[in-house]
Each structure stands twice: as structure tokens, then as C-alpha cells.
Amino acid sequence: MRKSIKGFYSFFLTIALLCSCNNINNSPELKGKFWCLEEAYLNEFLTISNLNILAQYINKSILPENLAPLDPTYEKAIIESAVEWYSMFPEDVNIAKHEYVYIDTYYGTYGDCVVVKFGNTQIREFGWIYSEDTTIGGVDFHFRSIYKPMVWKAL
């Protein structure tokens, strides 16, 4: 009797383990949306403290020290969101392809938001000297590229 009970529990645990592994592999794809820094702040996704940290990185063109790498699952979802973003504009529909879109800079994760600057290999800056100064939540930002940091948040 003991052997049959042990056998039953072993069989049950094996089936449970296999089912749980199958659920992990078939998990739904992560989806998200981009927000500009100001929208993210106004929607309370980012705090003033977050903005101050980001301003240091953006204004001085330095990356955070000891920044853990971006999780590949999030990287894939962010690229997918960027492709969808490009496809919203008729003039950009030909460049809305996965092979063209890349994450230029990862600024870190703040709460449940990921701040990145993404780009597209089909868009060239042509040596332009681009400059834009703006204030968000009392924090000054000095953008020096046509690509601005965007806030990605999972839906």
C-alpha cells in the first residue's frame, strides 16, 4: 500500500511539474506603450526623484553606474512597441521593421517603467546639431539628439 501511495504522489508531482513548465513557456507576450517623459510624470508613472536621476544621466550623457542589464523579455517587448509606434505614421511605415529598430540607450527601470532611447537604422541625423531644452516637473532637461528618451510601461 505504501509503495502505491508513494508512486501516486510521484506521478502527481511529475504531472504538476510538467504542467507548470508548459504554462511558463506559453505565457502571453508582454505588451506595452510608450510615453514621453512629461506624459509619464503627469500620469504619475515617474516621480520628481526619478526625473532628477534621469536628468543627471541625460544632461551629462552618462549612464547609471551598476545598472543591471535590461531583461531580454522586456527588450523584445520594447522593440515590438517601437515597431508599432513607427507604423502609426504613414511616412514611417517602410521603416517600421524589427531589423531596423534598436535600443540605443537603457536608462534604467523606475517602478514598473523602463526608460530607453530607441532608434532606427533607416533614420539618419546627418550630423545635425539638435538641441532642445525643456523643464518637466521643475527639472531641466537638455536633449542633444533627435532621439529622446521614452518611458515604456507594460499594459
* Terminal Cα span: 51 Å
Order of neighbouring strands in the sheet with most strands: 1-6-3-2
Helix tally?
4
Structural class: alpha+beta
Biggest sheet, in brief? 4 strands, antiparallel
Estimated share of beta-strand residues: 15-25%
The overall pLDDT, averaged over residues, is 80
Please name the defining characteristics of this protein:
4-stranded antiparallel β-sheet, 38% helix, disordered N terminus, 25% strand, two-stranded antiparallel sheet
Q: How would you sum up this structure, described in words?
A:
With 155 residues, this protein is α+β, with helices and mostly antiparallel strands. The protein has four helices and six strands. The strands form two sheets. Strands 1-6-3-2 form a four-stranded antiparallel β-sheet. Strands 4-5 form a two-stranded antiparallel ribbon. Strand 2 and strand 3 form a beta hairpin. It is globular and about 40 Å long. The N terminus is likely disordered.
